[in-house]
Design a protein that fits this description.
Strand content: under 5%
Shape: elongated
Number of strands: 0
Length: 137
């Protein structure tokens, strides 16, 4: 459920774009640029995370907990901003934070599951992505 909630946080801006345009007078292109910046930060951190996480020395479960809490905080901070410019830093931070989740979850699940079980359980686990998107809609 926590991973689905994080996926819902990722979609929050997309769902709220039209109300944000109306309330703040922001252009759709400015709000689209926010999503692009967040996803670019997510992409870069995903590529770096395997080496970065090992050097932190924290257990994967601790990183997961910190990432879930950090994503919620970053989403809330984004929502408290009055302009797309103010939303940029917390929304990009959200992308960086969320990128840390999946590699750590894979480490935890690989430790718990036999190799013959991993495909089935990872398939079930990955249903959190569309479920989280559904929650945010």
């Amino acid at each position: 459920l926590a991973y689905a909630a994080v996926m819902a946080c990722r979609k929050a801006l997309s769902v709220a774009k039209k109300p944000l345009e109306d309330a703040t007078g922001a252009r759709a292109s400015a709000l689209g640029a926010l999503d692009t910046a967040m996803l670019l930060a997510y992409l870069i951190m995903q590529l770096l995370m395997s080496r970065f996480a090992d050097r932190l020395g924290l257990p994967p479960k601790t990183l997961i907990l910190l990432a879930v809490a950090g994503s919620g905080l970053a989403t809330a901070l984004t929502g408290w901003q009055a302009s797309p410019r103010g939303m940029l830093v917390p929304w990009v931070a959200n992308g960086l934070i969320q990128a840390t989740l999946y590699p750590q979850i894979c480490i935890v699940l690989n430790a718990w599951l036999e190799p013959t079980q991993r495909g089935r359980y990872m398939g079930v686990w990955n249903t959190a992505v569309p479920f989280g998107s559904l929650l945010s809609a």
